Amino acid sequence: MIFFLWFVQISFAQTKDSLSYYSSTGSATEFAKFKKLGDDYYENGYISKAIENYQKALQIKNDFNVQKKLAKAWSRKGYGEKAIQIYQSVLSQDSTNVNVRYDLAILLAKKGRIEPAIKLLYALEKTDPKNPDYSYQIGQLEADVNRKLDAYLRSYYKDTTLIRSIYKITKLYRQLDNFKDSAQYFLQKGLTLSPNHFGLLRLQVIDLYRDNKFVAMKNLLIKMDSLYPNKLFVKKNLGWVYLNLNQLKEADFYLDQALKIDDEPILYYYKGILFFKQKKYKEAKYMQLLAIAKKKVKNDKEFYQLGLIEKEYKHYQKALNYFKKAYKDNVKDYKSLYQQALLTDVFTKNRKKAIKLYQNYLKHFASKDQQTTAAIKKRLNDLKVKEFMNSEKK
Fold first, then answer.
1. In this structure, what are the phi and psi dihedrals at residue 143, rounded to the nearest 5 degrees?
2. H helix and E strand count, the chain
3. Alpha carbon distance 347, 210 (integer Å)
4. Model pTM?
5. What pLDDT, in 10s, does the model give residues 136-157?
6. Residue 183, Cβ neighbours under 10 Å: how many?
7. In what helix (H) or strand (E) does residue 46 lie, and over which residues does it extend?
8. By three-state DSSP, how is residue 274 classified?
9. Is the separation of the CB atoms in 240 and 270 below 8 Å?
């Protein structure tokens, strides 16, 4: 804080020295004095003062460069529309000024005026077909995936070392069907050019996760942790992968580190699983309830875990209620439906309801788990026989 105040004092003193210099020497024009003061104020963060002096300079001489500086100052102060008006005024006097056209396009995009921004960028691309940045910015603004990809590819072919284009192309190819090889090519190309690029390493982690290569995933995340020590993605996924490798001490360490960065609900869910694996059911239950409290979307996974915890406690009614909540929250949660059917069958001994639940499972989820499906079919036959015999007695 002391250093910052000292720096500001020095900077402000230098700005005042500029004024003294121009006041004391007759060689500098008033225009140059105000322009220099505007630059000094802008560099040191005194934007209002910079605007004031740029405007004074422009009263003396209409200068394109000062107008551009004034536009940037207004934009930095949060007055984007004033900046746009200045850029448009400059272009009305010199429509060939590519720097102003580009600055205007970027500012229009920031203000949400996408169509005129894209139109300007396409015009710039025609004016200078070799400039990769125009194509890249078009890719940033296009809504259609194919047009977006085409723009990034144009940018890449103009400069095959432009890592930001390579990263965007890689991400888009991964979203498209039948382009896995292309995505992999650009991923490897990018990592060759920039081995420590966080975004590309992140995509590599996701690939390892999808391929169930958890040891390789762990090793890559450890490398990323040394490069990016305060990234939530890294800490969270190190906790998750250690959890899946049953290295619970390490999982606990990284999950706690992740929670110091952000208290995402998923982190409490992982902690709940960790405690469950340690048979610390009280702590596991607390963590899952905490995850639900902090979460604003579906809670089926947390409810399912709470059901398993209560089942371990032999609190079967509580477990059944949680499995019901899990399935209600997500009708695709076949595991919760199975547990609900099982407890209805074994605990409540409500055969008719159990039969309906088992049938519902077979109707929607028979292909999910062959072993479970076989067990359900066998149990369903037994229940139907019992129901038949019971009706015969009546």
1. -90, -35
2. 22, 0
3. 37
4. 0.73
5. 999 999 999 999 999 999 999 9
6. 19
7. none
8. helix
9. yes
Q: Give 292-348 pLDDT, tens digit per residue.
A: 998 877 889 999 999 999 999 999 999 999 999 999 999 999 999 999 999 999 999
Phi, psi of 106 (to 5 degrees): -65, -40
Q: Please report, as a single letter, which amino acid is at residue 265.
A: P
What is the DSSP-derived secondary structure letter of residue 85?
H
Question: Cα–Cα distance between 301 and 342 in angstroms, integer?
Answer: 18
Contact 70, 99 (CB under 8 A): no
With a CB cutoff of 8 Å and minimum separation 6, the contacts of 378 are none
Region 244-265: what's the mean pLDDT? 96
List of residues 6+ apart from 118 with CB closer than 8 A: 105, 138, 141, 142
Cα 240 to Cα 151, 228, 233, distances in angstroms: 37, 18, 10
Which residues are within 8 A (CB) of 134 and not within 5 positions of it... i.e. 6 or more apart? 102, 121, 124, 125, 128
Cα–Cα distance between 264 and 299 in angstroms, integer?
Answer: 13
Least confident of 160-164, 319-323, 339-343, 389-393: 389-393
Q: How far apart are CA 88 and CA 94, in angstroms?
A: 10
> For the chain, first and last CA: distance in Å?
88
Distance CA 381, CA 143 (A): 54
Is 222 a residue whose pLDDT tops 80?
yes
Residue 89: both structure tokens together: 């005024």
